[in-house]
């Protein structure tokens, strides 16, 4: 029965706990809607026919509704609407309140891809791996414009807003691959901003995690041969600090506020820099990223054009990690400007 | 509201004997034939006609964009245009349809023409302001169209920041055009409010005003209160684009969600700017064509004000998944339900009006049927949307597109077409061909369903809106929708042809071809320049009072 209705309504398969709840309300609402539209329509059609005009000059009776009738007109829809509201709001609270034991994943929208990072683990682009039957909380933000993270099979959606985090969660009920779409118009390739969620069974999940850890360590120059001695999982900003040290940023940049060969990182994020061409620029994510990739593009006045490009030397996640690291080096006066600080990756403690 | 006299609603204001008035009181159409006498006219009827011509033109432009969008979506990949052109096309479709067609159409064309006639007035309160609001609309349109031709814009009609402040397309002139158009809207609203308050003829009490006037009045209140917010927010976006203000851009410390609040604070009430006039038109039409007094007149009148009021407190339902608090979402969800209740009151009372009526199934009534259906169905999907949990999967998918086309576009188009046919004899003194009218009404209603029902299903299936390319599995429904759009376009084309034909070759209409007791029919068709010749009509009963003089005592309520 449910299967049939879902097919008639073209609903995608149900692959999360929320999907099942939403669909039952959906079907209830559609049924009531259809029936009452049908009732109104039939009454109207009957009247059109029953009371058709017989002569051009035909007069009519003066009919007005009693208070009782009008009361019925108000209360009948109100009762239905409030019933839907109560059920719907309960489900809405459900989907906006992640369980305490949920696993965290960071999601970042970016023209035009989805990036995922696990606080303890690897990064991924466009493919999100999660275990089945375990609540997963998504902490969502964007690097540029607003995007919206949508998985039809899970019936979940949440906007990715630059400068802040939003959250949603799901618990996938069966292993499989499900499409991720972006539902907030975000420019030229909005419709190509697709990704997928790969839901793994518990065994597959463990295997995958192990492999990822190994791969991650193999990439690191200071990797220790013995996996059991792997360092504790790093936060994104900590990773950024490591990467910055590895690639040699600190040869020219300090973090204590003193200018060296290049400007200090302390308080750099959000600072207004005067450029050599006389213009001003705000050191936001875009500027910091550009300075790594194309250092000569916007030289801060008073410093030589000495920095090498890191284009091709840093991976996407590494770049992001460095930016996140620089963002944490904020001086108190910048910190007080509140919302302007942009997202900082803080692991949420359970 | 208890009409004690057995007379008809009012005596026509001394309709002059045939042949007599042409020398002394020419109709407004022929009173001055120079171009200047039209362009600089202060006559509300001529201004109404000019509005009509322009909004029809804008409708054509918006419709062409719609067909570009629809034909592009015929196949999953690129079909007729590239991605950037597509993005501009759906944006311009939305902008043109909303700001240049739906908002000004009924108030500008029919409101201007009918409101003074229905109030027994010689003109609106501020005729010069009235002319100015037409030219503000055209000026704004000219600037916006200049922007469209010089690059266009790809933000969607919602202009969400920070995309709209970062895109390289020509946002500024188009937003500035919309800003100016806002002034036109405010001026019209102001004019209607003052006209309704001060220009009612003796005998037209508040509760004898035609329901179209009530609807225009409620609309005007929203226009005056909400439009300034839109104007400001558009200016801020322009400032942000050109001068990097940083109000909405998080990279500069701004808040993009603030933009959404401000935008929807106007744009949600704006959907009632679009549908309330259509509710008003339909109240007139259902009474005329079932020859009955309005069942629950006061309920219908007050529900217009009710919608206008709660319409201001529902904007947050556009932002259930934008990260606002769960509590907020709940508040906005309940308030949105109230709009549904007020609309339901209207629907029940319209159907009640037909009860014990005498239905004449003419073209305007055919559109009334379509309207009833779109309102009930579209309204129900709106309530479903307001159910917060259901909004989560539906938000920003084709379900939204289908929903707002049903309720907002469907209702408005039905009312616009109905008004065009209903008031055609009044405005131009000609009759149109009833058979063609019914055929095209059927085509348009059918086409509308065929276009948008598949889009509801696409939304259920999860297809996001504003998609240039889409996964293969959505194709069948998209093809169906495009076929529906073609049918719809054919319906409009046929209407355009026979109405133009009737304008030139149509038979001369009598003063009151529908035998209506709406107040606007108490004068000649087309009306003379000063609306009424000789003594003013006497208004003794509510409009649409079709009670048999013999058994005129008012029976009990149902
Ligand atoms: C021939 C009939 C029409 C067709 C086939 C049509 C088609 C469409 C389509 C496919 C979209 C979605 C674009 C997208 O999200 O990718 C759309 C959006 C829209 N349509 Fe229509 N439409 C029609 C008539 C109208 C009318 C008559 C109006 C208003 C009077 C209107 C107002 C809008 C608006 C406001 C949008 C939203 C634009 C946006 O996404 O920014 N449409 N239409
Ligand atoms: Cu996106």
From TrEMBL, chain A:
<keyword id="KW-0472">Membrane</keyword>
<keyword id="KW-0812">Transmembrane</keyword>
<keyword id="KW-1278">Translocase</keyword>
<dbReference type="InterPro" id="IPR036909">
    <property type="entry name" value="Cyt_c-like_dom_sf"/>
</dbReference>
<comment type="function">
    <text>Subunits I and II form the functional core of the enzyme complex. Electrons originating in cytochrome c are transferred via heme a and Cu(A) to the binuclear center formed by heme a3 and Cu(B).</text>
</comment>
<keyword id="KW-0249">Electron transport</keyword>
<feature type="domain" description="Cytochrome oxidase subunit II copper A binding">
    <location>
        <begin position="100"/>
        <end position="211"/>
    </location>
</feature>
<dbReference type="Pfam" id="PF00116">
    <property type="entry name" value="COX2"/>
</dbReference>
<feature type="transmembrane region" description="Helical">
    <location>
        <begin position="70"/>
        <end position="89"/>
    </location>
</feature>
<dbReference type="InterPro" id="IPR001505">
    <property type="entry name" value="Copper_CuA"/>
</dbReference>
<dbReference type="GO" id="GO:0016020">
    <property type="term" value="C:membrane"/>
</dbReference>
<dbReference type="GO" id="GO:0005507">
    <property type="term" value="F:copper ion binding"/>
</dbReference>
<keyword id="KW-0479">Metal-binding</keyword>
<dbReference type="GO" id="GO:0004129">
    <property type="term" value="F:cytochrome-c oxidase activity"/>
</dbReference>
<feature type="domain" description="Cytochrome c">
    <location>
        <begin position="235"/>
        <end position="330"/>
    </location>
</feature>
<dbReference type="InterPro" id="IPR008972">
    <property type="entry name" value="Cupredoxin"/>
</dbReference>
<keyword id="KW-0408">Iron</keyword>
<dbReference type="InterPro" id="IPR009056">
    <property type="entry name" value="Cyt_c-like_dom"/>
</dbReference>
<dbReference type="GO" id="GO:0020037">
    <property type="term" value="F:heme binding"/>
</dbReference>
<dbReference type="InterPro" id="IPR002429">
    <property type="entry name" value="CcO_II-like_C"/>
</dbReference>
<keyword id="KW-0813">Transport</keyword>
<dbReference type="InterPro" id="IPR014222">
    <property type="entry name" value="Cyt_c_oxidase_su2"/>
</dbReference>
TrEMBL record, chain B:
<dbReference type="Pfam" id="PF00115">
    <property type="entry name" value="COX1"/>
</dbReference>
<feature type="transmembrane region" description="Helical">
    <location>
        <begin position="258"/>
        <end position="282"/>
    </location>
</feature>
<feature type="transmembrane region" description="Helical">
    <location>
        <begin position="169"/>
        <end position="194"/>
    </location>
</feature>
<keyword id="KW-0249">Electron transport</keyword>
<dbReference type="InterPro" id="IPR023616">
    <property type="entry name" value="Cyt_c_oxase-like_su1_dom"/>
</dbReference>
<dbReference type="InterPro" id="IPR023615">
    <property type="entry name" value="Cyt_c_Oxase_su1_BS"/>
</dbReference>
<feature type="transmembrane region" description="Helical">
    <location>
        <begin position="398"/>
        <end position="424"/>
    </location>
</feature>
<keyword id="KW-0479">Metal-binding</keyword>
<feature type="domain" description="Cytochrome oxidase subunit I profile">
    <location>
        <begin position="38"/>
        <end position="540"/>
    </location>
</feature>
<keyword id="KW-0813">Transport</keyword>
<feature type="transmembrane region" description="Helical">
    <location>
        <begin position="327"/>
        <end position="345"/>
    </location>
</feature>
<dbReference type="GO" id="GO:0009060">
    <property type="term" value="P:aerobic respiration"/>
</dbReference>
<dbReference type="GO" id="GO:0020037">
    <property type="term" value="F:heme binding"/>
</dbReference>
<keyword id="KW-0349">Heme</keyword>
<dbReference type="GO" id="GO:0022904">
    <property type="term" value="P:respiratory electron transport chain"/>
</dbReference>
<keyword id="KW-0679">Respiratory chain</keyword>
<keyword id="KW-1133">Transmembrane helix</keyword>
<keyword id="KW-0812">Transmembrane</keyword>
<feature type="transmembrane region" description="Helical">
    <location>
        <begin position="49"/>
        <end position="69"/>
    </location>
</feature>
<keyword id="KW-0408">Iron</keyword>
<feature type="transmembrane region" description="Helical">
    <location>
        <begin position="89"/>
        <end position="117"/>
    </location>
</feature>
<comment type="similarity">
    <text>Belongs to the heme-copper respiratory oxidase family.</text>
</comment>
